[in-house]
Amino acid sequence: MLQAQISRALILDCTQASLVWLNSTTMMAKCFFFANSGHLQKNVNRKNFQAETQAQLFGHHTMTAESFYVDAFRAREETGVLGRMVDVLGNSMSTGQISIARLYATLNGNPTLGRKVDIVPTRGTPDFFPEHRQLSSKSQGTEVEHIMRSLNPQADDLSNVHSNLWSQAFINSESETSNYRSMLATVPQSGLIPDTSLGKKLNMIYRLILLRDERSVDRDVFACQLGGFDHHFSLKSALPDKFSEIDGALKGFRDALSAEGLWNQVTLVMTSEFGRSITQNSSGGTDHGWGQNQLVMGGAINGGRILGKHPDNYSLQDEHVTGRGAWIPTTSNDAFWVGITQWFGITSEMGLNYVLPNLENFGCSLFSEADMYSGGTATVSGCGGESVQMKQRFFITEPRLLNPDEQKSFCKKIVD
Question: What predicted TM-score, i.e. pTM, was given to this entire model?
């Protein structure tokens, strides 16, 4: 799996849109769209989705969390899918977790393991004592520095555990910020990536990938975000500019990495909290939906296909429409993360189940590394053979919904 001195990088870009540039034959061959995909606890339809879904559907905050966690029953409480990957691989190789501009929960791993997420602004890491920012004079800047250093000196007999922890965290942060600043000074921005909001974030990721040796990492996970797609009104006039920004940023990012011979070592996942309603509202926009069409792209992707199943009609009476114009996903987020996790180096059943705790609720409706990547060999255990139809009954003493463990246990027994 490990490509001599070259880290594999996985980037999560939370963006609610599709792409125009990808219409080109060259790029379509290196990407997938996952049709009508999204957060699911299990496969549901319009009759049972409310009873069988614990998440607060259609809310930005709650559904963003679901897209970051990919852990419907919170088996790995408050950890994200990228963070759990690092939890597994961090035992055998050097890993990096970097969030661009702000912290995204998808990068959070098990807090007891002590691995941290670095936050790097798009402009680079600023000096903690910038004399030219919000300070009236150079002397005032010196005074601020003196105060901070006096508050965080070497521990003495009067120090306590809380002050020591605070001071050490401050010193470590200042040191790491300085290290990032020194490293980034040696790598210029790529002129191939446009100077847009998303372009600036991808340019920073590009520079950090080039610094993989200096950072001594074998595997990297990054996260960034682009907002501005909540088009409840004026969708037709507002969306083209967002498409254009995504189009240019992704093309430039691909071109910059290709020029460095690194595109085959990168997978980019473009996802969102939810899709939009298939019906237009009275303001010329669309409202919050559920199922969406998500994108995975990279140099090693064996693409040019749409995986999953797009609805074959737009009837509001379809079994996968909630009744308010929102499609119920027919492909879970878990499904495409299987192949990505395997490509990233986690192929054991134990490792996969740690990263994706709800896999057993989806049987063989999953996409493996062999399905998604050129030369991919990892498959989904127990899948790919002859199909067998059967009926199973689960007897309980009183009418009730199965709890998460019962659901997963029942599904696992059927697959086995």
Answer: 0.86
